[in-house]
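#struct-pred
JK: can someone run the complex with nickel (II) ion? inputs below
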Amino acid sequence: MVNRSMLLRLLGTLALPLVLAGCGVPLNTSWHGYRTGPATEQSSPTQASGSPGEAPKPAGPDCRKVKCVALTFDDGPGTYTESLLDLLDEHHAKATFFLIGKNVAKHPGIVRDELARGHELGNHTFSHRDLTKMSLAAGQRELRKTDAAIKKATGTEPTLVRPPFGAIPSNLKNSLDVPVALWSVDTLDWQTRDTKKTIKAAEKVAPGSIVLMHDIHESTIKAMPKILVDLQAQGYHFVTVSELIAKPKPGIGYGTGQHPATQK
Ligand code: NI
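RT: done, structure tokens with the ligand placed:
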């Protein structure tokens, strides 16, 4: 959730760089996606899906060659999440869920299902408070408690962080061992709670977009069939954020126009 001036700033500066971010970056063949844990150089090769020496299986479509978009859903899991998972399956769509720790504790089975169906899991803090209004230690607790809740539910930890309101102090961001994922297209679904407006907002998608939505609102779930059909008709592949970025690095807020090509 963002205020209006923040939104304008984001929309004004992000659209084009994100187009470049998604598909201009070579897919790193050693990157295996969310199943290998945090996207760091320390990831053990033994955690990867293939055995040592074997050519790794690509995590998804090659976004250098095809149109890709990362659909992301914040603040869940909730009542409507399972029906969203069915819709995504119908379209062979992978998405990224930025989970609130409190809700993970309430619905661990849904989180397991998200992972089992091939989606990426991200950390959206435990109680959805503004991380810029608390100490570094308190912010780290918010994230660690959520990591623990997701680990308890699924046996694995989230591979991305998305701070509530898109706001994170730089000292907290720099202390993370996973990347921060923001967005480039905000559907404002949480504000409008209007299916038609959510569909209209999703028309702003371009190749490489990271789209912000919320799976806790029925109006959003009702918008999804048309959004999926329309984007698929335009040739889009629905990938996770880590598949889109190819190899996201810790300490970077993806969605702000920063991407590997500019962060050597
Ligand atoms: Ni949120």
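RT: quick notes.
Confidence is low (pLDDT under 50) at residues 6-58, 257-264.
The pocket of nickel (II) ion is lined by residues 1, 74-75, 124, 128, 164 (CB under 6 Å).
JK: thanks, will look after standup
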